[in-house]
Records
---
Amino acid sequence: MLFLKNTKIDRIFTSPGFLLALSSCLWLFAFRDFLTSRLALAGDAAVYYEHIKYFLDNISRGVYPMWEPTRADGVPEEFFLRRIGSFNPLFFVILLLNKAGLPYTHAYLMFLGFYYLLGMSGFYLLAKRIFHSTGKHKTDKHAFLHGRIEDASRSKKKGELSGDARPAFVAYILLMFSSLGTRLFDSYILLVFVPMVWFFYFLVAFSQQQDRKHALGLTFSLMILVITYIPFYFVTIFLCFLLSFCLLYPCRLKSFLADTGSFIWKNKVLFFVCVCLLVLSLLPGVLFFLDSKTGEVVLPSRQMGTTGESSLAMTIDRATAGGLNESFLAQRLFVDQSGFQLGDFYIPLFFYFVLLAGAFVSIKKRFFFWGVWGGVLFVISFTDATPFYKFLYTHISYFKYFRNLEFFLWWLILPLSSLFCAEQLHLLLERVPETKTGKTGFLCLLFVVCCLALMFLRDQGGALASSYLVVGLSFVFFAFHFFGNNFVRRYGLLLLLVLVTAHPLEVYYHLSKNANVYKGPKQYRYQEKTPFLNMPVPAHANILPGETVVPEEDLRPASKRVFDAYIGTHWYVFLINYMPRNILDAYVSRKFLVYDQVFWLKEDQVSLKKLQQSFARNLNLAFVSLGGRSLEDVSRLSREGKQGAYAKIITKGSSGVQVLDFDINQVKAKTNFDTQKLLVYNDNFHKDWRVFIDGKETDLWRTNVAFKGVFVPAGEHVVHFRFGLPWRYFLNWFLLILFFGTFFFLITFYVRKTERIV
């Protein structure tokens, strides 16, 4: 064949770079409708899109967002910043693309694709390290997960992939074309998977070669993992890893620890820097957890029935939501995949063929290691279906703070399955019988496997056409391989790429047909118009003097309703539970109100009837919490006599209050009153809000149950509401710069001292 004689083409089509690029292009093509925004993000993916956009929009204007006034009428932003891991420097790829002229939605989707491929690259390099057999690393004998493969391919002709590249590439394409990639568009799995896979890459690399660049990479990966409020997924995965490794490789662990101790002794400064980086990275999470114990912010849908100190804690019934159940796998693995949707579990069909055929090859020790590691997490994923999870929930406190344990399937069990299948395939391909009779017998065995697979597909009904194609071509591939066809041997990985991707590409086609179409900017928050950039002072009052928001006969206290807020301040959630929503919404749309009359409340006293009437009629009566003070302490603030029946609603044309400056963390206004007034800013009260009059801090009062009020003297003054203490802003900006610096230093370190491992 002339094609085989062209050595230049031969080198191209067998080079790792070409195969990696080709597989990436196939994946991008399969998800083009999602990545070009023709199809919409769903579930948590849409929510995380909004969080990241809110963060980047504010950062691009020099504001580190610590408050979100447009969600539940004002909540601290820290909860959402911890969810996304706001210090991740790679998020700024989105900002750069957006500033270059790309619409934000397209820039974000491009980032998703890039970030996924970055994670897949890390997995390929990790697999290369795991299957590495050249023994050129000085501490190779102590390598984590390291097992030697007797590789007959060392004697093959120049241009063919080395033996350790073959199983690594197969593991890579199996994982890339599994359901892991589909979860980009309906969950936050990607934000945990990418740093986690790079963490394990750097861990394995460090175990093989105690090098400073690997230590720094390990540190940076950990930094990214711990800045989320739910690092508990990774903590659980890593603890199970340690448990499994200690059970099966105690001697290697001892040697690794000895080598690591020697490395630390020789690199004391680097070790100290890495420890400092990790401690600083933990600070936002620790502070957030401490804040959650104050009760200022609640998460009603998570907290129902809990008695814990933290607002993040959940009951065991709530924590087990999102776990596996008995029918989970059967519903997703063996169904008509023309109905495939986001969230369905899937691994390429070729995996099952190798699993069956690989039953006739030897079992290695690390298979048991992977089985124990993945098996423990698999059992945990079933949550209340087994007593094991109840024990963990009761005795390990952090299990009370996270749920959706089915995600372990995608984060660990899928990658481990891909590694297992890749090595089984490698061993299967290397098991070439020496005699023709032996080859024929082995192929007959594979033929039986193929027949059983075809019968199974037929009996299931609704199998895709590519299913039969994969089974048939798999047998042809093995037949040509065992009988020494040079084309199949030389271009084996290219052919395997076809075998692995044939079925997923058809499954992804049906996924695109079943997904929701993008309906434009209104589908996501913060699109096109950005309401958080300007103070939404109304142009006109939404109520005239003497009017009510609802008919008079409806002005009665509402009975407690089901929680309808995911997150909110404590007192705001109280209001939405007891206050008719139309009255509350109309009231908070009046961002500034000016009162003369004050009704002082003790903390446990709220007159819902009077409060409802005041809101509905805009009465000149504000309800102010004493905040632990006595009436004598606040007597100087009380006023005698009425100054009008109705509160003054501040609109854009009002002369009494004019907004001078606003961002999501602060608002500054100029006031000019003839007498002392109570100025109410209808944004939720929180202990970290402070208020200044002419630069001097004064008391901020919780007013009308959930909002902010300040007594302003007569005359012209500047009132400044500001959220958060200055040191928190400094810490956040410092950490952002620190993460950028560490990332660029790591990249520079690797560029200068990299070794070829592809």
Note: DSSP finds 29 helices and 16 strands in the chain.
---
Amino acid sequence: MLDMDFSEITGNLTLLYVEDEEPVRLTAKLRKIFKNVIVADNGLSGLTMFNENQIDLVMTDYLMPEANGIELVKHIRAKDSRVPIIMITGYVDTDFLIQAINLGVNQFITKPILLKNLMNAVRIAIQGFVLDNLAEKSRRQELQLLRYKEKYHSTQQELAFLKELKIIRNDLNHIKLETNAGKTIWHAEICYVPLDILSGDSYSIREIESGKVIFFISDAMGKGLSASVTSILTTSFVNHLIDEAIGRGDFDFRRFLKSYTGFIKKELLAEEIICAAFVYIDFHAERLDAAIFSMPPILVLKSDGELRKIKSNNLPIMKYIDSAAIDSYDMSGFGKILIYSDGLNESPLELSEGGLYHDRIEEDFRRASFKNALYQSFTRQAATPEDDVTFIFIQRLETDWQPLMKLTTGGSLAEVNAATVDLQNMLEGMGLDDGFIANFISSLTELLVNAYEHGVLGVGSELKQALASKGAYDDYLIQRQAHAGKAISVFLSKFTKDGKQLIAAAVKDGGDGFNAAKISGLNSDESRFTGRGIKIAKTLSDCLLYNRQGNEVMMIKEIPDKIF
């Protein structure tokens, strides 16, 4: 049974179905699922139909007269590198699979065709198509937003916002912090949703040395240009102080605060104020130092279920007031930490309910497994925000998880694909929902392909693009694969946290890795990756974390209660 969202997606797509022996019953079912189904009975007519119509998805048999499925795919890919393609075949042959995969076939279906298997293949095949369309829609919306601003010239606003984003630093982006001999994992996620292009909120997450991290959120009171300038000054100087201290190797939290407040007070107008939270955590020593300047209380959920608040201990930063109290806390029992600006808790709820999100935030924080879950709960309940929304979600994970499967593959694409099948069979054996499995395997497949191409074969995006433009990429992969000599390991685990069941998959390759902290938003380090695989994996999972070296990635996804 298709879920509503998937039905709505397929109901807007045009399918090209190429099959020399058309199964009338299957075609009739496909016409009920897709907006339009165009049928061709051989490869040549299939190519003609593709060239003459706007096709969203191709499903083709392999053995056909005139031109077989591989030849059809070659011609389609010469014209369109993005359209999803599903290959139907009556047998599985390694050379055939490698050739088809290198040509860009997204999924395979074996005969006889079962509708359930076909729909799972369609679901996975169109994930990238849907994400690309969403990204394009988002880009159009962002462009429209940039064009419409009454107070400032659009180009100036864009440059100012890019400047704000440039000075923000996040040293823990997609990075897991391991403590207690690897038995404990800490990770931090940021949610930053400015109300306007020129934002009064800003943040940075800076690692002073291994496991010692400053989390910083500032909220410059006021709107528009003045608040934005103060925000830029604040974050820029904070990062400057931290960079200098790291360079000297002598960071001191109290001295750092004194230097910052001394600087920013001189730059403030008489009526201006800044609210800010500075949290310095030593994850190895499990100690938290906090200097909170009239910000909302930091929420802490302890391992025993107790919810604790760390309240503001300083007045807001003003031109003529000098105070910087620091309170220290033992965080050995802390499970989750939430640092946020007042744009979150002071957002009004929907008019029919009344009140502020302040009334819901504690319970939602208690239930949320990850940052996205908290933000989704916020957007479901709150009206359109009237201020910037910024929060940092810090979480502890104890890795005493139930192991489900461990696989080690060789350095061939066929072995990677076989591992994917084994993992899918494991998930199906657990009785999980088809949609959950499809999303999980789609994410995992992207991570495995990244590990194969970049870790095992050492292929960077520039080389890949150069070879592909010459039509030499397939031959290069085969040549590299023969001498790779590196393996990929996959670990599948299950665990329970805060009453929720979650599945974690870790993929490790023998490559040199990369600096995962440089992944910005949905874009990766362009010198090493194109970022599409990471984008898909991040979108379809709840949490994506790399080790320090960047050659191991962990994907975590919550299992909704309803799918058992």
Note: Residues 168-398 form a domain with the Phosphatase 2c; domain 1 fold (CATH 3.60.40.10).
